[in-house]
Amino acid sequence: FLITVMSIVVVIGSIIYLIEGPDNGFTSIPAGVYWSVVTLTTVGYGDITPESPVGQTLAALLMIMGYALIAVPTGLFAAEFTQQNAARREESGTPSQRCPSCGNLEVDHQADYCRSCGEKLV
Questions:
Q1: Which of 20, 37, 41, 73 gives a 20 to 30 Å CA spacing to 48?
Q2: Largest alpha-carbon pair distance within the chain?
Q3: What is the pLDDT of residues 17-74, one digit of tens each?
Q4: Count of Cβ atoms closer than 10 Å to residue 5 Cβ
Q5: Can you give the pTM of this predicted structure?
Q6: Contact at 8 Å (CB) between 57 and 51?
Q7: Is the dihedral of CA 39, 41, 43, 45 positive or negative?
């Protein structure tokens, strides 16, 4: 996975260098790779920006790809960890309760308030 992402970053960085060139701040392929990493990770410092419509389209595609490669899997992993944690609690017999307001199952049996919605627990 990491090798694939790194390859995409180098290829996109090289393409943006060829499209934009030194006149628009992309003075070298490493500068293009830097921009590609910053854009893919959705950091977006803004120190180098594509000026041409083709470069801006490539930037937009890279931003969407960054969201798909970083944010979506992070949410999926977090959901899976939450489910595994709940299953582990069930197996171990650790008591938990359901929030009457939002239905959150991850409420500690000693909690006074729900950590998801802040509702006072019964």
A1: 73
A2: 65
A3: 999 999 998 999 999 999 999 999 888 898 999 999 999 999 999 999 988 888 888 8
A4: 15
A5: 0.61
A6: no
A7: negative
- Please check whether residue 7 lies inside any domain of the structure: yes
Q: Is residue 50 within 8 Å of 19, Cβ to Cβ?
A: yes
How many distinct structural domains can be found in the chain? 1
Q: What is the CATH number of the domain that holds 60?
A: 1.10.287.70
Amino acid, res. 95? P
Contact 62, 36 (CB under 8 A): yes
- According to the model, what pLDDT value does residue 107 have? 66
User: What backbone torsions phi and psi does residue 106 show, to the nearest 5 degrees?
Assistant: -90, 45
Percent of residues, the chain, with pLDDT higher than 70: 92
CA distance 80 to 86: 10
| DSSP assigned state of 119 | P
Cα(4)–Cα(12) distance, rounded to whole angstroms? 12
In three-state secondary structure terms, 91 is: helix
Give yes or no for a contact between 54 and 30, defined as CB atoms under 8 angstroms apart: no
